[in-house]
Amino acid sequence: MVRCLSGVGQLRFFITIFCIFFIFSSAYAQDTDAPDEQPPLSLESELVVVEELWQTSADEEIEEAPSTALALPPPLEPPPLRSVSLMLDWYLSPQHAALIVAKERGLFIAQGLDVELQTPADPSVAIKLLSAGEVDLALTRQPLLHLFAHHGAPITRVATLIETPLTAVIVKGTAQPENATHLAGLHYGYSTQEGADILIRELVPRSVRQTDGFLTPQSVHFNAVSAMDGGDIDAIADGFYHSLPQALAANGIATHTLHYAELGVPRHDGLVMIANSNSLAKHGETWSRVIIAVEEASDWIVNNPEAAWTLLVETHPILDNASNVAAWPDIQRRMALSPAALDTRRYGAFETYLLHKGLTDAVLPVSRVAVDLFTP
Predict the structure, then answer these.
(1) Which value, to the nearest 10 degrees, does the dihedral of the CA atoms of residues 225, 231, 234, 238 take?
(2) Kind of pairing, strands 167-172 and 255-258?
(3) Are 163 and 306 in contact (CB under 8 A)?
């Protein structure tokens, strides 16, 4: 009896446990019903981000990404300019227009150069200072270049500023019927070796120079007006024909001009830029940049002659005089538009001329006296 009751109790116990398990299983199944099916993702699907992913702790600082730089970078400093000293052949004049324009319009600076134009106290010292390395570049005339090169000066032409001579023989009075005989008996003055060694030899034959009555040519120390005004000098062998006749006329002295071509002197460059040949390879790239600036200036002058003249006289009022105003159109026509270009025939012909006249003992190769830095 007791065992029966015990068996019935166990049965009730198992039934109770089963009912409890069934009830909890049903509740769990209801809570875990599968959600509704979602459509497949595509480019048009909306992106949903769980909000909890954007939450930060109270101790964290939120850094905002800048949309632009917070501060502009410091400006780049331009590279330092290369200083270049260039000594003129004499006092400043319109023949130096390309250099003045290149400096005043910032063309040298655009090439990374700070060019200083120096005026010599004596034109004869420019080549000497260049040979000694005291200046970087200098200006001279082609005949002087040849003469000094034959005397061993380490100089080389690197550019041409004026393509034809600017000097000539300036003679008092008018031309005479027997002008050659008249010229042979004059007392000559000169400013450079060009006049003393080349022109006077052409004007005065050897037979006359060897006579007792021959008047030894005299250096006028670059003051031709005073020398001719004083009455001692009859002619200047190498005077600037754009300015000297006008200056003498102002003093009541009439003159006439003999251009070198009339005397058989070969055509040559009137104004050239020269460099020290010993350092040419080292500084050739810098001199090339100087020439580029000069070429740009020459082109601007030709295209804007009136504006160029205004620039010259505004920056250098000393140039504003009647003589320079009259000379300006002619000087423009003689300016080299390709300063670096080298006429090897012209330089070779001048070397041959000097040899035939007995002024030199040999012919120097053109490469010794002139180069084109832009030709390999």
Answers:
(1) -20
(2) antiparallel
(3) no
pLDDT of residue 130 exceeding 70: yes
Nearest-angstrom CA–CA distance, 212 and 235: 20
**What is the extent of the structural domain holding 362?**
82-164+269-369
CATH number of the domain residue 193 falls in: 3.40.190.10
| Strand ranges across the sheet with 113-118 | 113-118, 82-87, 137-140, 271-276, 155-162
Q: Copy the structure tokens of residue 132.
A: 């000694």
The pTM (predicted TM-score) of the whole model is: 0.79
User: Distance of alpha carbon 190 from its chain centroid, rounded?
Assistant: 33
Q: Are residues 333 and 278 in the same domain?
A: yes
Q: Where are the alpha helices (DSSP H) in the chain?
A: 2-31, 97-104, 107-110, 125-131, 142-150, 179-184, 193, 200-203, 206-209, 224-229, 244-250, 280-303, 305-315, 322-334, 344-356, 366-369
Packing angle of the helix pair 322-334, 305-315 (nearest 10 deg): 130
Cβ–Cβ under 8 Å, residues 94 and 243: no
Structurally, how many domains does the chain consist of?
Answer: 2
Residues 239 and 273 in one domain: no
Mean pLDDT of 290-299: 98
Domain-located, residue 42 = no
Same domain (yes/no): 137, 195: no
**Beta strand 155-162 with 82-87: parallel, antiparallel or unpaired?**
unpaired
Do 356 and 224 lie in one domain? The reply is no
Residue 151: what residue type? H
Residues 327 and 354 in one domain: yes
281 and 339 both lie in a single domain: yes
177 and 224 fall within a common domain: yes
> Do 136 and 283 meet the contact criterion of CB atoms below 8 Å apart?
yes
SS3 of residue 44 by DSSP = coil
CA distance 340 to 119: 23
pLDDT 10s digits, 21-77: 555 555 554 555 545 556 665 656 665 655 555 555 555 555 565 555 566 677 776
